[in-house]
Design brief:
Strand content: 5-15%
Radius of gyration: 18 Å
Helix content: 40-55%
Shape: globular
Distance between the termini: 35 Å
Number of helices: 7
Strand order of the largest sheet: 1-2
Number of strands: 6
Structural class: mainly alpha
Order of helices and strands: HHHEEHHHHEEEE
Amino acid sequence: MSAYVAPLKDMKFVMKELAGLEAVAKLPGYEEATPDTVDAILEEAAKFAAGVLDPLNRVGDEEGSVWKDGTVTTPKGFKDAYRQYVEAGWGALPSEPAWGGQGLPKLVATGVEEMLTSANMSFSLCPLLTQGAIHALELCGTEAQKETYLRKMVEGRWTGTMNLTEPQAGSDLALVKTRAKRAGDHYLISGQKIFITYGEHDMAENIVH
């Protein structure tokens, strides 16, 4: 199996010449996204993807995750890789500083996500889905929800999932039957969900669905 090498030259070209990184960095709040800073971020992400995640790609295929006694154990090395991911702050790149994020443009975070996914898709789905949950909370969450969840998710202590698939509904979400009925200050949910990616694992202390 060939080793992963991030296409940094191509990525930098796309960001600067096609996506207009310089113009993005002039937007309010994005002043830290200078060419030198972005180059450094991409280069460090490439090292993490190639040095930590790529070697675990085969391990993930050969071992897989194991469900035993109500607990899911991820393949050897995944838990430590996630610890390194959290400590390096990769998951905090695009999030608001108010919640512990670095406030960088999504353009930059997308480049990092591309490298993580290319090096090891099975691992990268966990932080990718967490990013989606964080974004949903930032846009639509109540203040109470943001206070409860965002900082812990941005810091990587908690991860998030996307609960879509049902026995009769895969990619066709118009067929979803699960319903949420308001009951006072909470909702009663009825229905069945299956195939929830990273719906259970041992890499974080809590999983938000």
